[in-house]
Every structure is written in C-alpha cells, then in structure tokens.
Amino acid sequence: MEQHQNELRRAAAQAFAESLDQLQKTLQAEGRPPTTAQPQPEKAAPVSNGNSKATPTRPALADWEAAVADIEQFIEARRSS
Prior knowledge:
Elements: H1 2-29, H2 61-80
C-alpha cells in the first residue's frame, strides 16, 4: 500500500511540475520574463497622508484564468489516476 501511495505522490508531483511548465510557457508567450525561484523582498508600502487613494495592483484576469485552468487540469489528472 505504501508503494501505491508513493506512486500517486510521484504522479501528482509530475503533473504539478508539468502544469508549472505550461504556466511558464504561457507567461513567456505573453511577453513576460520568467520569474526566479527565489522570492523577491517586499518593498515597503508608501505611507499615505490620507489625501490620496491608493489602489493596489491586481493580477490580470487572464493570469487568474490560466492558473485556474492549470489547477483544474491537475485535479482532473489526479482523479483519473
């Protein structure tokens, strides 16, 4: 039984890695440079003086749709195993 679990984990890890590769290719096709594996330090948010309304940047809808599609593909592949 432990061998079966290991096989499932390996298959899940492989499917996840493939999804990440597909996401990277999609982002590169949109003209975005690939990101590094190391997290970038967060920049300090500017202090608001109360006069301006800051709007945080949000990911593009296409980015969210691509991420959801990758996750759905991963889950579907896992279910069919």
